[in-house]
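[User] At your convenience, examine this fold.
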Amino acid sequence: MTTSRTNPKVDEFLSKAKKWKEEYEKLRTIVLDCGLTEEFKWMHPCYTFQNKNIVLIHGFKEYCALLFHKGALLKDAHGILIRQTENVQAARQIRFTAVQEIVELETILKAYIHEAIEVEKAGLEVNFKKNTEVVIPEELQTKFDEIPAFKTAFEVLTPGRQRAYILYFTEPKQSKTRVSRIEKYEQQILDGKGLND
C-alpha cells in the first residue's frame, strides 16, 4: 500500500466545516487508511483508485455520509447502504449523525471501501435502467386516451424529455395537482418542447 497523501483543498474544506467537522476528519482517516488518493471534486473530499471515483464524503443538515459511487454493486452485508432517492441508480450512502457511530463502524466501513475498490479493479459497471422503464401516471394515460394527437406528440419527444415530464407529473401526491400540471404543459408537449425548453 502506498502511503496516502492528504490534499490541501480537503484540509481547507475541513478547516471551514462548521458542522460535522469531527465526523469528516474521522471518515477521512478511515478512507485514507484504505490507500485511496485524496482529491477534491464537486466541492467535497473525493477518494479515487487509479483515477476512478470510489467514495465521497459529504454532509447535509441532518447527517453526514460516505457516498459510494458504485454502491449499488456492493453486497451490503450489513444492510447499511441507503439510496438517496429512487432516481439515484448507482450511488449509495452510509449516513452518520455522530462521530461515535463512525468509530463503531470503522472495520465495516473499511471492508465496504475495500469491496468498492475491488468492484473498480474488476471493471464492474452499474447497468443503468433505460428511460423506457418509466411508469406513465394514470392522469397522463387518461389524457392520452382523450387526445390521441397529444399521445403522439409525447411519444416523439426524446426519452430524456419524456422522463423529465413524467418525473414532474408524478411528483405531486394529489391527483388534481398532477392533472393541472399535465394541462399546464399540454401545449408545450404538442409543440414538441421539453419541460425546460
Q: What stands out?
A: The CA atoms of residues 59 and 65 lie 6 Å apart. The chain has a mean pLDDT of 90. The chain has two domains: 8-121, 131-190. DSSP finds seven helices and five strands in the chain.
